[in-house]
């Protein structure tokens, strides 16, 4: 079998951490710059089996903005302003620490109509948890979120550092969660690594493709500065920004057997 070189976003290689019966994987893909959806190799079978997503396979020129938030660096308010001004929906995958430390921003995300995703309470490696520990971590996050908003519960989950396996995918399904990975990202989570907004812009535009689920971090000044340029240029190229709910609802309508 030919090797696929994965362009890992959160890790530099596939992590193999052996448990009694499951290996742990770090999300990754074969990066492209020809407007094509990147390949994910063996991960595709896992997503098919457990109903996870990493892109929109309709072929339409739709984009889905997602942000991972573990701590606040002072840029999220400005990012929310840009999203509001351009009427672009987003999903914010946040941790329990973020909910506790930045409740006003969480409340604004919800009031602005954005989705909140479960990024765990403790930013734990899901594959190192027992099933009861996994459930408790996610439910702690839900309780924290409910304590500062009227959000019923989250539907989408993104594992910290992209670490997962078949067992954690199954456990999440049993709790009613849908895994949302990504098909476009770059190393943008180092708060002190500022290269200028053009660098961030170019790295995103070079990977752009129809149906991309885009992962960004709000700790990056470069991301905050490039976001408006990126949104406007994508719209000029005929792209439409949609919510993850649009993607999932469309698939459920097309497959009425889905509960």
UniProtKB/TrEMBL annotation:
GO molecular function: hydrolase activity, acting on carbon-nitrogen (but not peptide) bonds
GO-annotated biological processes: carbohydrate metabolic process
GO cellular component: membrane
Domain NodB homology: 61-242
Coiled coil stretches, renumbered: none
InterPro entries from the UniProt entry: Glyco_hydro/deAcase_b/a-brl, NODB_dom, Polysacc_deacetylase_ArnD, Spore_PdaA
Pfam families on file: Polysacc_deac_1
Domain of life: Bacteria
Entry protein name: Peptidoglycan-N-acetylmuramic acid deacetylase
């Amino acid at each position: 079998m030919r090797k696929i070189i994965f362009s890992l976003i959160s890790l530099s290689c596939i992590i193999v951490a052996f448990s009694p019966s499951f290996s742990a994987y770090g999300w990754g893909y074969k990066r492209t710059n020809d407007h094509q959806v990147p390949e994910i190799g063996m991960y595709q079978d896992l997503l098919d089996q457990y109903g996870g997503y990493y892109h929109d396979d309709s072929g339409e020129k739709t984009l889905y903005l997602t942000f991972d938030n573990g701590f606040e660096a002072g840029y999220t308010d400005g990012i929310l302003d840009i999203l509001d001004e351009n009427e672009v929906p987003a999903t914010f995958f946040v941790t329990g620490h973020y909910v506790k430390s930045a409740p006003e921003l969480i409340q604004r995300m919800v009031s602005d109509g954005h989705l909140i995703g479960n990024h765990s309470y403790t930013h734990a490696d899901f594959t190192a948890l027992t099933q009861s520990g996994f459930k408790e971590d996610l439910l702690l996050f839900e309780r924290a979120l409910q304590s500062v908003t009227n959000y019923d519960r989250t539907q989408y989950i993104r594992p910290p550092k992209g670490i997962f396996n078949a067992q954690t995918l199954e456990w999440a399904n049993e709790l009613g969660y849908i895994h949302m990975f990504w098909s476009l990202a770059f190393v943008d989570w180092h708060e002190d690594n500022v290269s200028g907004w053009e660098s961030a812009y170019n790295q995103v535009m070079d990977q752009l493709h129809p149906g991309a689920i885009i992962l960004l971090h709000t700790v990056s000044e470069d991301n905050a500065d490039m976001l408006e340029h990126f949104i406007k240029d994508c719209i000029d190229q005929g792209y439409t920004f949609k919510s993850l709910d649009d993607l999932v609802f469309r698939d459920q309508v097309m497959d009425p057997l889905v509960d």
